[in-house]
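Lecture notes, unit on binding sites. The following record was shown on slide 14. It pairs a sequence with zinc ion.
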Amino acid sequence: MQDAGEEPRLFPNRFADAVGPAGTQPDRDRCRCVGHSAATRPASVKFHPERQDTTCEGWQHLLALIDEAATDGRQVFTPFVNLSPVECRQIVTLPATIGTLTEVKHLVLYGTNLVRIPPQIGALTGLEVFEPYTSHRLHWFPYELTRCTLLRDSTVSTRALYGNRKHRPPFPALRAVTTTTQTDFAALDPGVWGTDAVSTCSACAVPVVEELHRAWITLPAGTDVLPFLVNACSKECLDQLPPPAPGYAPAPHLGGPALHQPTP
Ligand SMILES: [Zn+2]
Ligand SMILES: [Zn+2]
């Protein structure tokens, strides 16, 4: 079922140049993870399990576009404009090299098929405007995005977000603490962990070696309020998280169906 409210019929003019060439192939997939209203909200939700195919043309093309942008030091980066619909659909995350774009002030990820954004986004220290608008499969962001302290403007399809205040979808359940003897942090199942690897602490950036401590926290970012996933090295790092945004779960949490959230 297509929700009319999720798919605005009129897009702001500023996105007119943000989409690639039209084609007959679909450029993205749909998902129903979070529902679109209190009535259609699921009782529980899991992370998207898709793994990135790094051999496909779309990925190779995106890597080349990032290299090009890093070399010329451009400030506005709209990579999906240059990808064909087939290539766009192949991209479910961004390469780690996105973190080389330290000159970029304005990142446009309009209408993509992304299901996650890697922690390297936090290296975009010049980022002022972040626009993943109508990327409806993005339900959360890495806590590392909060390192982009110049971020002042964002355009996010908030109805697709876990815990959004319109209809409060659930969050995927997290395991509070995991040790390296239990799990190899370099080879994770994205459908369970939301990522295929954790290497550094979302909060203090040291390598995560022995224990992985996880939590969800919802915070203001840009002009939105976003749910962030924290992969921390220690309980101390979780204890030092800032207070969550008012009107959302009042403390960092582990998600799951039992999570109490304010009513929509
Ligand atoms: Zn989804
Ligand atoms: Zn830490």
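Take-home: Residues 31, 33, 48, 137, 139 surround zinc ion (ligand 1) (CB under 6 Å).
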